[in-house]
Amino acid sequence: MKSTLFSVVILFASIGCSKAQKTEFTPESLKQELLTSDQNKIPFADALQKEKGKTLVIEVWASWCGDCVKAMPQLKKLQESHPEANYMFISMDKVTDKWLEGIKKHDLKGSHYFAPGGMKGAFGASIDLDWIPRYIIIDKFGKIVTYRAIEKDFEAMDQTLNKLKS
Which tens digit of pLDDT belongs to each residue from 98-128? Predict the structure, then answer.
């Protein structure tokens, strides 16, 4: 009985650890090329470098994603509450036209990038993308403090950003 219970505990612990928070991006994800809104290619590492020294909130989203659209009012409230942070949007749209239309339609303020291949592309795989919207928070030193947040986690994201202010 004890060995069965121990096996169950180990199983749940290993499943929980597979979705663990990371504190840095893998070399694979940093080298992935994204498109800028003017259709230039930029490695993800360079996009991050542009935000160096500031707290950064990354939203991985798509214009076709209902949960992404539903979460936008909450994201805008977060932006209003935390103007000290920078905001980066990485689109998982299938075509750039829809991505660019989505930015305008939803009046998204921040830096914008497009990940070729969408959710199943190389960039999505390199950040363990399994759901959108997905939020990642990076502190001003470049350390990931939240690696996996979803649309239900705005209160926790607000608390994290409040802690990073001090």
Answer: 999 999 999 999 999 999 999 999 999 999 9
C-beta contacts of 29-34 below 8 A and 24+ residues apart: 29/123, 29/126, 29/127, 32/115, 32/122, 32/123, 32/126, 33/116, 34/90, 34/113, 34/114, 34/115, 34/116, 34/123
For residue 125, tell me if it sits in a domain.
yes
Residue 11 lies in a domain: no
The answer to whether position 16 is within a domain reads: no
In 3D space, the residue among 4, 5, 113, 126 whose CA is nearest the CA of residue 62 turns out to be 113
pTM over 0.70: yes
Range of the domain at 38: 23-165
- Which CATH number is 130's domain given? 3.40.30.10
